[in-house]
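Regression report. Comparing outputs from two consecutive submissions.

Submission 1:
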Amino acid sequence: MNNQWYSLGVLRLLLLVILSVFNATAVAGVAAYQQPESNASLWQKVSAWAQHLPFNTEATPGFRWIETPSLHSEPQQRTVAPGGMFRRAEKGPHIGVNGVAPVAAAYPSSIAEQNLVLDVLLPRELVLADAEIVWHIHALENAVEHRLHGRKLGLTLPDGKYQISLMIGTYVENSTVDVHHGKLAVTTFNPRIGRLQGESTLLAAWEVFAVKAGVPTHKIMTRERVSQFQAIVPEGEYDVFATIGDARQLARVRVGNGTNAITRMDIPTGRVNLLATLDNTPAMRPMSWKVFRLDGGTGRREVASPERHSASLVVPPGHYEAVAILNGKQRSREFTVSSGTFNSIVLAMD
């Protein structure tokens, strides 16, 4: 009996010790949690530590550090230019955020080493990704050319004369600049551009022509079988054509600087289904169709020629003739298509 009481006493003592240790640990943890954070940011600590590292980035061609706002991206990023030609602080497609251009960090290099800055002043209303802003840098003396992206670039180039081309959508602007060591050249472009959009209820072929003095001058873009498109274009007037089958519609659109101009095409069309039969079932044999438009002021004009026993066509409203040819036999039928109608043409080839 005494042994049992003794064992219970030991267990109680051990339990008291464990609870005491747990309480002390919890109090220490709360105190540490309530302790104010250090004023020094993690990056400042890392930078101070990095200053004592033995490597020398100045001896590595093509490498520099760039700094961007720490709230939006990594505080610093190490980059190398294509072919080691440039040593620069660069705003690339994955670096700049919300239009904030990076600046050279104080460590380890100075922005004073740059000898060319490329900048583009975009309309405030126009939102573009850096990948949509394309620079071509062409060295005239040695025909070396490089392609870069971004709104603002700071570069270190070999001395010489360069042709700078800025391309945003269909907008292109060129400039020539002399670059010298120790002298900063700044080339700024101020394009007057906007966004042109086209929409259609059906897949259409699109053509866009620039208009000068009320006359279309040259085609600037085409798109095949899409229901919508968009493109950055210089400020001005444009003729937009949408074609669905034999139906075609035109709209003249004005694009202002920084604006988003949308043209919606509602092309009046009807659908025609062609079917050739043998013994009241689909023919399922090689054959040909020819579909002619009979009105429209151009006389009898072929608009489609499917090479199978069945076909589906989208055509503008009008009067048509369908001709089916199978094994030397020919059958035909005239029909009229109205906007939004569904027309089924079945020809027995027996």
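Submission 2:
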Amino acid sequence: MIRGGKKMKRICRLLSVLLVLSLILTAAGCGGQKEKPAENKDKKSGGAAETINLTIASGPAGGTWYPLGGAVAKIIQNNIPGAVVSVQQGGGEANALGVDKGMYDIGITYSHTAAEALAGKENFKEPLKNIAGLAGLYPSALQMVVRADSDIKQIEDLKGKRISPGPKGLSGETMTRLVLQVHGLKFEDMAKVERVSYSDSASLMQDRQIDMYSPITTWPAPSIQEVAQAGGVRLLPLRPEKFEELKKLNPGYTYITIKAGTYKGMEEDTPCLGSNAILIIRKDMPEDLAYKIAKALYENLDELKSVHKSLEYMTKDTIAKDLGVPLHPGVEKYYREVGIIK
């Protein structure tokens, strides 16, 4: 009985080992037949679409750029199979730097900022080599505002006056400095230079503590409208030859005319220095993907324009113009195919 018991134990151990091996082999076989997730399937082919993760750098919450970034993301996701797009808050210069370093795939910035980035000028310590143009969005103008009863008629008349070009290092301050420069002036020629926000500048103007302030913004601008209610305003005109001098300094600048009547007291059309809000893209992005993104945006312009009134300016005639940076090859290919550029 003892011998038989030992023999039975050995048989049981052997059967246990065989059972375990059988379970392992069965599990391995099932693992090899594991079905892949079907979340990103191309509806046309029925096959799985490769996931394309993209990040868009927009602007701060509460501004125009943040919802605009969300609209761009939605269009891309709805029209490019497999695209998963996230939107990050940012700012013009930071967005250019982020796209260049590959932190972002697409970014919103200004055309003059893109030109500065490409050349390594102003606040960019070295040229950015990994940014390219995707689309022009809408124009903004440097509006050099004076009260309607002011004796300041031309930009040269600002010498010895009190001005507010905006916070130091921001676009308005840089552009005002350059406008003064081509007119033979500098900040040191002013009686006083305040570097405060647009709303604070408007308050100073209303209190007659400054003579001119120069926001770069869309029009009509709420802060300028506020000043205009108390007696009217005028904008100082930028003459064509001075614009040409500025264009040589920065190819991202544009020449914009703001119509008479835009503000109370403004009786004449006024030419101003401008810059376009634009979309930039990684230059090293695959050409076919950049092509698809350009196609998706252009074919859904109406959806994009619903975000903000300023985007009414985004048309076939403006989308590839005055970007301050060359188009991405894939974007250029699409624009040529549809006749946007010749």
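Expected: both submissions complete independently.
Actual: both completed, but the second showed a warning that disappeared on reload.
Relevant detail on submission 2: The mean pLDDT is 87.
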